[in-house]
Amino acid sequence: MKSTIKFLEASLLMVGLMFNIACSSDNDSNNNSNNPSDLFIKFTTGGTTYNNPDPETINSLAKTINYNVLLEDQPFQIVLYMPLTPAVGTYDITDEPSNVESYGARYTNGVTDVDMTATSGTMTITEVTATLVKGTFSFSGSNGDGTVVEVTNGSFVASK
């Protein structure tokens, strides 16, 4: 009897899962780009353009959108900081990463031994949907030894 009940429970679970999958909607009637394959973060620095088709979004006290790769076996990273609920508009990038309502950026390049928080620049949020945030950015800053880094032509579409 127990095996019959377990079989029925498993069968009902499978039917429920199949129903859920079959009824899920991929209809994008509002023409917002909500497809995970449309996500990216790209930018130019030092004359080279970088593009990551899979930026990582972390929601904690603030939202971060991360570009993380290994470059010559060394970490290469850009992190964009913004409030958890970003709004459409243009914002100054500030050197206040602990201020969860500010917009900021960080650049790390293990090959050139540069690790800096942006001290100036702008981030423009162009669209916010229920699932995505889109925008552009440019910033600059210097690390402790005075090396200046400029990041230009930045754009992103990331999970909200």
Report a brief summary of the structure.
With 160 residues, the protein is mainly β. Helix content is 14%, strand content 49%.
General shape: globular
The largest pleated sheet is described as: 6 strands, antiparallel
For the terminal residues, how far apart are their CA atoms?
A: 48 Å
Enumerate the strands of the largest sheet in spatial order, edge to edge or round the barrel: 2-1-11-10-9-6
Secondary-structure-derived class: mainly beta
What features would you describe in this structure?
- The chain is mainly beta and 160 residues long.
- Helix content is 14%, strand content 49%.
- The protein contains 1 helix and 11 strands, in the order αβββββββββββ.
- The protein has one helix spanning 2-23; strands spanning 40-45, 48-52, 56-59, 63-71, 74-82, 89-92, 104-109, 114-117, 120-128, 132-142, 148-159.
- A 6-stranded antiparallel beta sheet has the order 2-1-11-10-9-6, with no helix packed on it. A 5-stranded antiparallel beta sheet has the order 3-4-5-7-8, with no helix packed on it.
- A hairpin with a 5-residue loop joins strand 10 and strand 11 (148-159).
- The protein is globular, with a radius of gyration of 21 Å.
- The chain starts with a helix and ends with a strand.
- The model is unreliable at 1-34 (pLDDT under 50).
